[in-house]
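Usage

Read records sequentially. Each one opens with the input sequence:
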Amino acid sequence: MSDKQLLTVAEVARLYNFSVQKVYRFIKSGKLSKDSEGKIALSECLRVFGAIPSETGIKQPLNENIKQPNDDVIALLKQQIERMERDLQDFKEREKQALEREERAAKERDRLFLLLERQAGVVSPAEKSGGLFGKLFK
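and closes with the structure output:
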């Protein structure tokens, strides 16, 4: 391919594995220019997008001006992650305690119902069976 070759938007999209809409967004934002016929010079594509992925096998970054996060940002993010992990552990502990309270409350409720049934004279299935307890306390 020569640098003087002109490409359509669809050809540029296919060449760089982009959608047609993405190429139009680059044109609209002013990052990529086209001529009066709507054609884009290959040299313009190379300037904006770098080497053609199919030729090099390496996909070039679209914007080389993207800054890498500095150490302060990384440290802040690590602190936030640690805080979130602690919050998650606290939540799990509170959930465990709530389940234990619920289980104790259910046992207490069952015990109180049993006492109420005995007080009301309702005979439980264990007492009806005529087992040793049933014979002793008739």
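Summary fields computed downstream for this record:
- DSSP finds seven helices and two strands in the chain.
- The radius of gyration is 37 Å.
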